[in-house]
Amino acid sequence: MKRLFTAGVAALLCAGAASAEIRIAHVYGKTGPFEAYAKQSHDGLMLGLEYATDGSMEIDGEPIVVIEKDTQLKPDLGKALLAEAYGDDDAHIAVGPVSSGVALAMLPVAEEYERLLIVEPAVADSITGENWNRYVFRTGRNSSQDAISNAVALGGEGVTIATLAQDYAFGRDGIAAFREALDGTGASIAHEEYVPTDTTDFTAAAERIFTAMKDIEGEKRLFIIWAGGGNPMSKIQAMDPSRFGIEIATGGNILAALTAYKELPGMEGATYYYYEIPQNPVNDWLVKEHMARFDSPPDFFTAGGMAAGIAVVEAIRKAGGAEDTEALIAAMEGMEFETPKGMMRFRPEDHQALQSMYHFRTEVQEDKDYGVPVLVREIGIDEMDIPVRNQ
């Protein structure tokens, strides 16, 4: 059984039973452009807490209280709400947010209050890189993990790649990491295109890409990194890039976004999660319970939220409680824990969770209204040399 409290109820409980409960703040973009991601993340967090506590929502007899804070995808608001969670609500640990830009604004607050922030699912490398501090852990994958796995899937001798990404931390960090990851694969990047996050008309960007690529010989791909609405893949595919010999490629995404993949059977890339790929008891439980409760399979960020919930419980158990942040840090550095993706490990140097990624090929299947990312092979932790960027 799940227990979910609003911030107001949690604050009242905190006043009367401060030492008898474990307070976790979920600071995330509940409303705004990424609200689909946010709902998945929150559902996953609650399922992870439930799974890791065998349904009790207690750790060593102390009940878990989850306090929700809506950043609305605004960095200044996210920063203020995290301070409110640590200061007014006395949260022991915070989880979130959805947006990389909001996450970067929140990082100094964790350091100021000397409380843990588990970043899930924001992706930018700089979160566990140049802007990192020792109170920050991340269960979500980072840009380098996305980039290296996609470089493994897409790179090759003589392959020429153009890129399209959103013009903010997620997109720019992602392309920078992808460019670095392509070194040694034989592939090269001929053109990079960045557009505003709310772009819906990709005509001008696509024309610049086509102009840069049309006279290049050999295998050519357009690699797209995108979050939220806009659907650049379908719109650019409608402009027939194949007339210039260009194939579209991208990484994984939420189920709703995979409808565009149906137009591109055979497209390859690397993904963080698709519910039919991992084969392990945690994922089996997640798929079964999510289908029973929501009449739909778990999605991209549901798995990530669950990983964060499991990590919270395992860390508190290992540390002997939630009150001592230093004990929690010591417990979590190097900690291994089972998730819907299999085993994850927090790297001591930057607290990034090392994890498998999945090389996929898109298939059209009769019972699915989207392009299905079918596993080509699992790219394991030991196959990806993820740079430490905080030094």
Automatic annotation (TrEMBL):
Keyword annotations of the record: Amino-acid transport, Signal, Transport
CDD domains xref list: PBP1_SBP-like
Gene3D superfamilies given in the database record: 3.40.50.2300
Pfam family, one: Peripla_BP_6
Leader sequence segment: 1-20
Record flagged with keyword Signal: yes
Span of domain Leucine-binding protein: 21-363
The keyword Signal appears for this protein: yes
Superkingdom, natural source: Bacteria
Gene Ontology BP term (one): amino acid transport
UniProt similarity note: Belongs to the leucine-binding protein family.
Protein name: Amino acid/amide ABC transporter substrate-binding protein, HAAT family
Organism expressing this protein natively: Marinovum algicola
